[in-house]
Amino acid sequence: MNRIVAVESSKELARFIDFPHELYRDDPHYVPELFIAQQDMLSPNKHPFYEHGSVRLFLAYSNERIVGRIAAIHNQNHIDFTGNKDGFFGFFDCINDPAIAKALLQQATEWVKAKGNTNIIGPVNLSTNDTCGLLVEGFDRPPIAMMPYNAPYYAELIVGAGFKKKTDLLAYELETKEANERTLKLVDTLEARLKRNGITIRKVDIKRFKEEVPKIRDVYNSAWDKNLGFVPMTDKEFDYLAKDLKLILDPNFCLVAEKDNKLIAFALGIPDINQVLIKIKRGRLLPTGIFKLLFQKKNITRLRVLTLGVVEGYRKMGIEACLYGNIIKNTYGTKITGGECSWMLEDNYLMNHAIEQINGKLYKRYRLYEKEL
C-alpha cells in the first residue's frame, strides 16, 4: 500500500535526507550531500530562505519502506520580484514507479496551489540561487560541486506526471591543456585595453572578505536581474552562502573587475569538493568523514566556475573573456587540470559562445520543467 506522509519530526527529516543514499547505493557516480548542510537547509530556524519562503516536505512509503521524497516550495520573493505566481518543487527522488512519482508531484502541486500559485516549476532546491535542474544528458560521470544528480528515468516520470520542458541549463567542460591558446593570448590584449579605460581585474581580498562580500552581492543581484527565474538574494542569504564558500575559496579563482573603485563584474570558481564528498559515506562527517574532507582537499583536480556576471553597461567589452582567461591561467602550476562552467541558460548565446571560443565542450544538460495549475 502506497501513502504520502508529510515530514513532521527530526527523525522523519533525517529519513528524508538519507533516502537518496539508499536509492543510489550501487551508483558509482552518486555524491552524497553533507548531512549537516542538508539539515540546515531544510530547517526553518537555520536557513534565511524561510524569512520569505516556506517549504513542505513529503515522503512516499510503500508499506513501511520509503520509496520517494519531494519538497513543495513557496517563494514570496520570487513572486514579488517577477510578478509570476510560480510555486516550485525540489528535492525530488523516487524509485522507478510512475504511480509513486505522480502521487508525489501531485502532492507538491496541491500544496503550492493552496498557497495561491498558478504554476509550478522544478526541480529547484530551494531557489534558482541553489542547485536546480534535472540531469537529462551526461550520466557517465559524477556531478561537480553544487550540481545535482539523478537517475536517467526521472525525466520520464516527471513528463508522465503532466510536466513539460521550461528551459535547459547547460554545463561546459574545459581542460586547461586544451584551452584555446590564441584566445588566451588575446586576453592580455583585452586586459590592457580595459586598463586604458580605467577597468582593472584583481583577486578577491580574503583579508578584507567581510568588506568584499556586500560589493560582490550588489554585482550578483544586478548582473542577473533579467535572467529567467532569477530572484535577488537577501543580505542574509548571500552572507549564508558566502560563509560556506569561504571554507573552500581560493582567491586565484575568485576574481573581480573594478572601475573607479566600484565592482562591475566578478567570477567565482570553486574546487570540486565532490571529489572528496563522494568518499564520505552517507554524508556524515563523523567519525572519519571530517578527516577525509580536511586531508583530501589538497588533491582536488577539478574546478567549477559557478558564476560570472557583468553589470549592464559594461558587457561586450571583453570583461567576460578576461575573467575566464585569468581563471584558466591561474590553474597553471596547480593540481587543477580542468573543470566545468555551469550552469548557463540555453539561450544565453553571448556567454555560451564565450566558453566555446576557449574550447569549452557542452557535456551535461539539465532541465527545468513546469506545469500550469
Describe what you observe in this structure.
- There is one protein chain.
- The mean pLDDT is 90.
- The two termini are 28 Å apart.
- Helix content is 35%, strand content 29%.
- By secondary structure, it is of the alpha+beta class.
- The radius of gyration is 21 Å and the shape is globular.
- The longest helix has 17 residues.
Q: Could you estimate the helical fraction of the residues in percent?
A: 25-40%
Mean pLDDT: 90
* Count of DSSP strands: 15
Largest β-sheet summary:
13 strands, mixed
In short:
The chain contains twelve helices and 15 strands. It has 373 residues and is α+β, with helices and mostly antiparallel strands. The model has no long low-confidence stretch (mean pLDDT 90).
Features:
373 residues; 13-stranded mixed sheet; two-stranded antiparallel sheet
Which SSEs are present, and which pair or pack?
Layout: E1 2-6, H1 10-23, H2 35-41, E2 53-62, E3 65-75, H3 76-82, E4 86-94, H4 98-114, E5 119-122, E6 124-125, E7 131-132, E8 134-137, H5 154-160, E9 164-175, H6 181-196, E10 199-203, H7 209-223, H8 235-246, E11 254-259, E12 262-271, H9 274-277, H10 289-296, E13 302-310, H11 319-331, E14 338-345, H12 349-357, E15 361-372
Parallel strand pairs: 4-5, 13-14
Antiparallel strand pairs: 1-2, 2-3, 3-4, 5-15, 6-7, 8-15, 9-14, 9-15, 10-11, 11-12, 12-13
